[in-house]
Amino acid sequence: MLPKADFQSWLKELSGQFDIFGPKENGKGSVDWQRLEGGELPDLAPGVPKGSIKTFFFPQPETLLEFSARPKQEDAFRLKEPKETDNPRLLVGVRPCDARSVVLNSMPYEQDPYFQRRRQSVVLVGFACSQGCSTCFCTWTGGSPVGTEGLDLMVFVLEEGLYVESVTEKGERLLEGASTQRQPNDSELQAVQKIRQSAPSGLPEAMEPAPRLKEKDLMALYNAPFWQELSDSCINCGTCTFLCPTCYCFDIQDETLKGKGRRIRYWDSCMFPLFTLHASGHNPRGEKVKRVRNRFMHKLKYFPERFGPLSCVGCGRCVRDCPVNIDIRQVMKELLAI
Amino acid sequence: MNPYLPYPARIDDIVVETEDGNLKTFRLVLENEEERSRWNHVPGQFAMLSIAGKGEIPIGIASSPTEKGHLLFTVNRAGVVTTALHKMNVGDPIGVRGPLGNGFPVDTELRGKNIVIIAGGFAFTTLRATLIYMLENRKDYGKITVVYGARTPGMLLYKDELKAWQERDDLDVHITVDREAPGWTGLVGFVPTIAGQVKPSPENGAALICGPPIMIKFTMPPLEEVGWTDDQVYLSLENRMKCGLGVCGHCNVGPVYVCKDGPVFTRAQVQKLPVEF
Amino acid sequence: MSTMNQKITEELRQKARQLLESGQVAAFLGYTSGSVPMVMRPFVARNPEDADRLEWNSFCVLNLANYLPALLKSFEPPRRPNEPPPEGPLPKVGVVATGCWSRNMVVQVQENQVQRERLVIVGVSSRGMVDKKKVLRIIENRDVNSVDEQDNTLVVKGPGFEEEINRWDVVRDNCKTCIHPDPVIFDDMIGELHGDRQIPDRFRQVEEVEALSPEDRWKWFTSEIESCIRCYACRNACPLCYCPTCFVDDSRPQWVGKSIEPVDTAIFHILRAYHCAGRCTDCGSCESACPMGIRMRILTKKLQKDVLELYGAEAGMSIQEPLPLTTYKKDDPQDFILTESLKGEKK
């Protein structure tokens, strides 16, 4: 248990060891991930910040390989691994849904050394949600507002201060450094219990979307008639894919400038028509309805078939920021009804 | 182990395969001896050829694992990277990432079967690897039939090897061209037509078909007519790839990734997928 | 519920239903409400029953002209890219249009993206659309459960609060400076035409930036686009951006890098603004669609001002008027070609 000021001085101490990031007002009217200096506390309105934390595990652009582009050099055009330059990072103010997204993303990225390296070095300090918002639906996807999946430390914000719980060994070791912490008293523990219990407990097992969608016939979902109307309004931008914590598709490009080259990876979106374009000109998903359908089918059917959970944590960013109000919750309902 | 880091290699030889110059076979040699001796692939697999500064392309491995010490890739000039590759010379550096994909099940389901290889145009590359592998292990397979066609005689790949194969008596080879051509004394007709004429028996058979989707579409009816079923037919799909590892999301066809779960699928598996390839 | 909006909604539904029932149009393009407050969903009504789902309010912010070329094409028999369109009358599409949307339709006709005969335009004079981001700023980004629009106010309700906001306070920047709220072409009209508005300082936002020094201007620009995630919502919401392959997507040659490197993002925004010069009607869809709150409209507004000053032209006012940047007139100002010393002796 740490009073606010002590939590801040603990953060300040940690900022000697880590680059600390947290949600902060960005001057453009929204709260987004920024560097927190000198023990600053994150801005924690109910709900999630504008962007997700995938940018810390899977930044864009990320240099995969480097090479020299000077033909006279002996190792010209030989691809090499870049040197490590990032300081270790600590993210404070991570909502349980965002933390869970890291666990979900590491399933397809199991063999990816760049992602795994960051996963080992980034510390996640989560803040439990005592209040949801109208676009949150984490319990539909198997998450919880007080869930600890993916976190190293979990914080409950109480009136008296911050109740900090360690989830992993890494978190435990860091917490030991908070020298002014004390044990919580009974009323504080009760307050934490209250937050835990007031969280919606999730849908009863029989209602869970993931196993139900897994059972349904793929082609029946694929050929459902509602896709056309859904895709009528879509403008095929990348807003949903880039703000989504569990969208992980990327593209790889080589860039050269003044004799130095790098192979970078950056976020790509299956909403863009170019995503599936072959060099021959053939485009399997050239039509808008195919792309819209594919995105939802991937998140709600193909991913669960391969890995188990839905590729969605219910953070609601896509619902909040889609320019034409396409709502994944409505898609889920439509698919479940088939 | 970084799966994005290619093995350094050099171009050892370049052969122009077709009369229009758009198809070249590159013989590559991996530079590190350890990587060279460790390399082992299954026919049907592909590798990512990496040209620093331009990008990467997924190309089927045209050489069989029994051809040691080098790798063959037959590349069609289509986009940015392939155009750059076609401009390269013997001795130029190149990267190879692989082997990727699943390959034909030559050591499992295909053993002991009567193999029918049907290919059109420049899709014959991985089937060359498969055929040579099977010929090196001849007693593991039954009858082997090959039907291969191209638009014109000049567009056929591996012309010298085709001639040698036609002369073998443990192999039934039918080479065809789409239309009559001066100097051509072989078969004339589209691949599906010739396949229909050959009428390979489905008994204990496995068909490996590679070609443009339209060729596959028209090849199935004559085979089905003589009793071939969908799980006896193996197809190699193509799709836009980037990582080759099943992560970047570009090559998915429904729930499967062509680079990781494929590119070889049975026709039965393909029938269950949405037509997005 | 705003009575003005209600009247427009009812008339719109009636007209759309009638057009669909009579078979005059194959579909009617409008808006319907979605699942979150303050965002309306563009909607294609394909049957008379669908017409009852059409709705009109002050949150219809995206330019419907954006959807027209693809929608019209979807009703044509499929053909290869090089084949000419088939002979004979093709199915028509009905659409509701305010001033700027109708002007974009004019530009689309002038640029051969859409044929005038295939559109049945139901015009509505605009009172200005509301900017959802401005509302959120006033209520300090709290969660919103519902927004009840009255004729001149908005009642915003959320957990633990209810606030009444003056509508004009939250109308979009481009609507506040709009001088052409009436549709310039239409086949039918809902309500009256209100005539052009007089706004003496409608380029004020642009002039404020113009007044800055070059260094400060660059600082303003780079800080404005700093949060860009290259989602291309601005480009995709814009009815002018219909190139089959956008310049950011080209690979031979590759003009612009695709990641969020500041240089590449800056090139994207600057070049996109230039591609809209002389064609942009300041409909504000780009800014409304942007999830990050970037005000890229100020760039296109600057170019709008330049074209007005240099050539006296405004985009999309009439189909017969030539497009300013693809038409040459002998008396076009040429200050930027001739240097100072040659000004007196034009060759």
Task: Specify the biggest β-sheet of chain B.
Answer: 7 strands, mixed
Helicity range of chain C: 25-40%
User: How many separate domains of chain C?
Assistant: 2
State the oligomer.
Answer: heterotrimer
Using the CA coordinates, give the radius of gyration of chain B. Answer: 18 Å
Count of domain modules of chain B: 2
Order of H and E elements of chain B: EEHEEEHEEHEHEEHEHEEEEH
Our measurement of the CA-to-CA distance between the termini of chain B, rounded to an integer number of angstroms, reads 31 Å
The succession of helices and strands of chain C, N to C, reads HEEHEHEHEEEHEHHHHHH
Largest sheet geometry of chain C:
5 strands, mixed
Shape annotation of chain B: globular
Record the strand order, biggest sheet of chain B. 10-9-8-7-11-12-15
Low-confidence stretches of chain B: none
What's this model, at a glance?
By secondary structure, chain A is an alpha/beta fold. In chain A, 34% of the residues lie in helices and 17% in strands.
Could you characterize the architecture of this molecule?
The complex is a heterotrimer of chains A (338), B (277) and C (347). Chain A contains 13 helices and 9 strands. Chain A is of the alpha/beta class and 338 residues long. In chain A, the strands form 2 sheets. A 6-stranded mixed sheet of chain A has the order 2-1-4-5-6-7. Chain A has a 3-stranded antiparallel sheet with strand order 3-9-8, with no helix packed on it. In chain A, helix 7 packs across helix 11 and helix 9 (226-233) packs across helix 11. In chain B, 21% of the residues lie in helices and 30% in strands. In chain B, the strands form 3 sheets. Chain B has a 7-stranded mixed sheet with strand order 10-9-8-7-11-12-15, sandwiched between helices. In chain B, strands 4-3-6-1-2-5 form a 6-stranded antiparallel sheet. In chain B, helix 5 (191-198) packs parallel to helix 6 (213-225). The longest helix of chain B has 13 residues, at 213-225. The two termini of chain B are 31 Å apart. Chain C is an alpha/beta fold. Chain C has a 5-stranded mixed sheet, sandwiched between helices. The longest helix of chain C has 19 residues, at 3-21. The mean pLDDT of chain C is 91. Chains A and C meet through helix 9, helix 10, strand 8, strand 9 and helix 12 of A and strand 2, helix 4 and helix 8 of C.
